[in-house]
Amino acid sequence: MTGRLATLLFAAATVLAATGASAQDWPTRPIHVIVGAGPGGGTDIVTRIIGQPLSELLGVPVVVENKQGPANLIASTSLARTATPPT
After folding, report:
1. Measuring CA to CA, how many Å separate 6 from each of 47, 71, 80, 81?
2. Phi, psi (5° rounding) for residue 26?
3. pLDDT, tens digit, 9 for 90 and up, residues 21-38
C-alpha cells in the first residue's frame, strides 16, 4: 500500500508540475486513471481524492477505472492497449 501511495503521489506531483510549464492547451480530453485494485480500497479512495482537485485544476474530468485482477495483469494489459495521443 505504501508503494502504491507513493507512486500515486509522485504521478500527481508530476502532472501538477508539468501544467505550469505547458504552453499549449492540454489536456483536451478526459484523463483516465487505471487502478489495479477493486473499488472502495485504499488505492481507489486515494486516487479519487487526488483526482477531484486535479480535475478542477486542469478543467477536464478525471475518470478512475478499476481493473481488478491477478497481480495487476488486467490493469497493465488495459494500459498497454490504450491509444497513444497524436503528437
Report:
1. 11, 18, 22, 25
2. -135, 140
3. 555 677 888 999 999 999
pTM of the model: 0.63
What does the block give as the cell for 72? 495487476
Query: Over the stretch 31-84, which tens digit does the pLDDT of each residue have?
Result: 999 999 999 999 999 999 999 999 999 999 999 999 998 988 988 888 888 876
Write the CA distances from 62 to 2, 52, 71, 73, 83, integer angstroms: 23, 7, 24, 22, 17
The CATH fold assigned to 2-14+29-80 is D-Maltodextrin-Binding Protein; domain 2 (3.40.190)
For residue 87, the one-letter residue type is: T
Query: Any idea how long the chain is?
Result: 87
Domain ranges for the chain:
2-14+29-80
Place of cell 480535475: 55
Helix (H) or strand (E) holding 58: helix 42-58
